[in-house]
Specification:
By secondary structure, this protein is α/β, with parallel strands linked by helices. It has 26 helices and 17 strands. A nine-stranded mixed β-sheet has the order 3-2-1-4-5-7-6-8-11, with helices on both faces. α11 runs antiparallel to α14. The protein starts with a helix and ends with a helix.
Length: about 675
């Protein structure tokens, strides 16, 4: 494949000069699509021409063309061209080459509108004006892209490799359209793993959807894997894509496979769901990492405000990363559970932040809570670093289901595959590691729980109850206890206060008040108020509060302050400076099921872990929040003791010796 990709890309030598490097892809991609279509149509051009003459209607042409081009390996063509031209024939009339090619492309059936996305007519005319059209057309006419020479899977690899090269040359996020095939195969294997026997049944029909479909690579792998299990299975492939070039490639690819081209739609998935009210058997996605959603903020927030009718009702992530929006979308697109108990499954590639970002009560935490409380997460697999072309960060596969098997209900399986993977002979961008077929099988065995063949040392696995990832963030208060002294330091603080420092005579009156300490706030306020009044200084209620807050310092021997008015009059007043929080796991002391039992758990935790150390502390129940996080790394952390001091000292002495030797050489 790398040889074919290099040969296709070598046309760049022809473009160099009249074209900037960032423009190569705008020429190479549409010509690759055209040549692939031409090679697929080649054996059927005579039949196609007869049908075009005989049947004027689109539907009639499509029906008869599929019937007359169907083979054991093909579902038949559902597209055509009314033009007699091929690249070879167009090149035979060099003086009219541009017009010939435009006639060729314009003759394609209406369902093959992909060349509009490439603005291919402009590409052709620009090549002609820059005197490069004949060389480019001749280059592609020599490439054999027939199905016999290049399978659908290999063609998908070619398209994505070209996209990668194009994006890299344009410095435009070189890997965002391209999911490595080893990652895709692992994701597909995991999503299919527990359905394998059902997929082999006669009459199997399955729908597969990718909301960030790119060039269709995930759909291709999923489709071929399913047909590998059951050659007679019927699949319907669906996808949505924001980028016009990759959308065009995907649509052309599905047409060649005999799929319905209307099942690939263009648009931003997070703004408009082009398959609204439609669910799928399998959802697969690799959304872009670390992409913000600022440009679509109003659309997303409007859908969130719709509540249960919107995809984003459970919560909103931080504006800087849309990953969890795609997670919610994937969840919403799993088909409903039917009367047989079969529902939908999803597999999505995410970075590490959706596991833990955001504290209790935040949007990300609430999204995790939605996923866990509704028992939608089957497993999370940690991949090795350096698996992707545009990033070396940690990545995870989330496997979701709305119809878990009995053994999985109420649980989440964590699989640590970070230690697997083989180093590639040659890196591609940031990708230095790949998952071999053997390692992929190990991970799948770990997922399905095949203990008989599983080496636990190779693939560490842990299973947790959903509520093991839930916790209460409890606000712990301590009483406000203040000592008041009008010392030079505290009076200086009043003088420097933004508002108090402007009150005439205040600092002078404080200096004459004396420096005796007060351990009771009310007594201090009363006596200070009389003193200030005697010195002609009048303060508002807010100013009096600012004075005692500025002068007072914490002192555990002081009297406890209490509210003196309002609904809480007489209650102990908390000290904001001493306020703290405690995260109390739901599973502490068991797994309580009711709200009352959860409160009892929090109180028991507080009594055991906090009260012995701070006797006068209490819980402010009004501030208690529920949170959810999945601390994956913590659960698989292995302590590594530091090296012995003797060993470190030896190394230091060696390094110092080397440095001294170098210094002596410099001096000499």
């Amino acid at each position: 494949m790398s040889v074919l990709s290099s040969f296709v890309w070598s046309v760049a030598d022809t473009l160099r000069g009249p074209y900037a490097e960032a423009e190569y892809g705008s020429v190479i991609l549409p010509f690759t699509v055209l040549r692939r279509l031409e090679c697929v149509m080649a054996p059927h051009r005579e039949v196609m021409a007869e049908i075009m003459v005989q049947y004027p209607g689109e539907q009639q042409r499509r029906t008869h063309l599929k019937l007359n081009t169907r083979t054991a390996d093909s579902a038949g063509l559902s597209f055509w061209t009314t033009s007699d031209y091929t690249l070879k024939r167009a090149l035979q009339d060099p003086n009219n080459l541009a017009e010939n090619l435009i006639d060729y492309v314009s003759g394609f059936s209406a369902n093959l509108d992909v060349f509009k996305s490439f603005d291919f007519e402009t590409v052709i005319r620009t090549l002609d004006a820059r005197e490069r059209l004949a060389q480019v057309a001749s280059h592609f006419e020599k490439i054999d892209l027939s199905p016999d020479a290049v399978s659908n899977a290999d063609m998908g690899d070619l398209f994505e490799n070209l996209i990668y090269r194009f994006a890299e040359s344009a410095n435009d996020g070189a890997g965002q359209f391209y999911t490595p095939r080893d990652v895709v195969r692992l994701l597909v294997d995991l999503v299919y793993a527990e359905d394998t026997e059902a997929l082999r049944d006669r009459g199997t029909v399955r729908s597969i959807y990718d909301p960030t479909v790119g060039t269709g690579g995930m759909l291709t792998v999923a489709d071929e894997h399913l047909h590998g299990l059951n050659p007679d299975a019927s699949t319907a492939l669906f996808g949505q894509e924001i980028n016009p070039r990759t959308y065009a490639i995907c649509k052309a690819d599905l047409l060649i496979k005999g799929q319905d081209p209307s099942n690939v739609r263009q648009g931003d998935t997070l703004v408009v769901d082009r398959f609204e009210n439609q669910g799928f058997d399998y959802v697969l996605s690799n959304p872009p990492f670390g992409t913000d959603w600022k440009a679509i903020e109003s659309d997303v927030k409007n859908e969130h405000a719709r509540g249960g009718q919107g995809r984003f009702a459970p919560g909103l992530p931080g504006i800087g990363d849309a990953a969890m929006l795609f997670l919610l979308h994937a969840t919403s697109k799993m088909r409903d559970v039917d009367s047989t108990g079969r529902g939908g499954k999803a597999g999505i590639v995410l970075n590490g932040s959706p596991l833990f970002n955001g504290g209790a009560g935040s949007g990300p935490s609430n999204i995790r809570g939605h996923m866990l409380e509704n028992d939608l997460v089957e497993a999370i697999v940690a991949l090795p670093n350096d698996m992707f072309y545009n990033t070396g960060i940690a990545t995870y596969l989330w496997i979701l289901s709305n119809a878990k098997s009995p053994k999985r209900k109420g649980t989440v399986q964590l699989i640590d595959a970070k230690g697997l993977g083989s180093k590639m002979r040659k890196s591609i961008g940031s990708k230095r590691i790949e998952i071999s077929e053997a390692h992929r099988k190990d991970i799948v065995r770990a997922f399905i729980g095949d203990e008989a063949e599983l080496d636990e040392a190779t693939v560490p696995v842990k299973v947790f109850a959903n509520r093991d990832f839930a916790y209460w963030t409890v606000t712990v208060e301590r009483p406000l206890q203040l000592r008041f002294e009008c010392t030079p330091e505290t009076i200086g603080a009043v003088a420097e206060h933004k508002k108090l420092g402007q009150i005439a005579g205040l600092t002078e009156a404080l200096e004459s008040f004396g420096d005796q300490p007060y351990l009771n706030r009310e007594k201090f306020i009363k006596e200070l108020a009389g003193h200030l009044r005697d010195h002609g200084v009048g303060l508002t209620t807010a100013q009096r509060k600012a004075v005692w807050q500025t002068i007072g310092v914490h002192d555990e021997t002081a009297d406890i302050c209490r509210y003196t008015s309002g609904a809480r009059k007489g209650e102990v007043e908390p000290d904001p400076a001493l306020r703290d929080t405690e995260d109390v796991p739901f599973g502490w002391g068991g797994h309580p099921k009711t709200h009352e039992a959860l409160e009892q758990t929090v109180q028991a935790y507080f009594n055991a872990e906090v009260k012995p150390h701070i006797d006068n502390a209490w819980i402010d129940w009004d501030k208690t929040k529920t949170g959810y996080e999945i601390p994956f790394t913590r659960h698989f952390y292995t302590y590594e003791p530091p090296r012995p001091l003797e060993e470190i000292d030896t190394d230091l002495e060696r390094v110092i010796g080397e440095i001294m030797t170098l210094l002596r050489k410099v001096e000499s």
